Amino acid sequence: MYQQIAANKAKSALAIIIFIVFIALVGFLIGYFLDSRYQTGGSYYSVFILIIAFVVSFISSFAAYFYSDKIVLQLTNARPVSREDDTRIYYMAEGLAIAAGIPKPKIYIIEEAGMNAFATGRNPNNSVIALTRGLIDNLNDEELKGVMSHEISHIKNYDILLGTILVVFVGMLSLISNILLRNFFFGGSRRRSDSRNGAAGGILAPVLFAAGIILVLLSPLIGTIIRLAVSRSREYLADSNGALISRYPAGLANALRKISANSKVEGAGNAVAHLFISDPVKKEERSLFANLFSTHPPIEERIKRLDLMSLGVGIKHN
Known about the structure:
The chain is α+β, with helices and mostly antiparallel strands. It is 68% helix and 7% strand. The protein has two domains: 2-66 and 165-226, no CATH class; 74-162 and 230-310, Zincin-like, CATH 3.30.2010. It has a four-stranded mixed beta sheet with strand order 1-2-4-3, with helices on both faces. β3 and β4 (126-132) form a beta hairpin.
């Protein structure tokens, strides 16, 4: 358990470092391209845009650490729930948090018919569990405890810190990709005209343009790979640890059977999909590429492992 927590904290720090370096690299390439394009005779644009890139990446990292949970809750249209609003959910969360040895997380509800849930925050003292209305209405108490125990496991293991930070970083990568692509394509004719005015621009501009395009095209893939690296294995671990917290693996297994029938959440996009207990984006709405690199393991395999836990069979986590 403590090794998992330490590993997640280390991964979170590494993700921030990689993000800062990546943004700085993009900024340097843009600056280098502009220096060659306008033949400044120095590194004016390279240095200037590199500084801007570092500032933007540091601000984004700060926002990702302290405000990413609020961003996620806003993206999914989740609203807070008090004890008076829903005593069933409130006391259930309180009891499971005590069993797990963490403070009770805040509870939010997403007014969606689909059955799904996620946890977010930066640590157990600043954590949230969000449940859809469909999940609350369609699951019995044992099944709901299974789902909430799964999310509490994510909180206790600090999965929430890494997962929530990645929402902001993946979103930033997509934003940068869109900005660069629009700049390259809409400014293409002007660049080609300028390149004829000097040999340096003519030689370097196409090379840097190609490098920029490759970087832009790779950034969504990088975001997907990062999410894959932290999503699939941690879902299995959260299933088993959650079952230990609730002391009833069959509860979560039965919940997953119901969830598999309808886990769609309208407000959830690809950027936040890895946070949910089950993929909230319909497969038919995903591209072939996105389906191939799904952030969630097969739900049938997760149910199978939980059924084996109910029988007292040990499971090895890959």
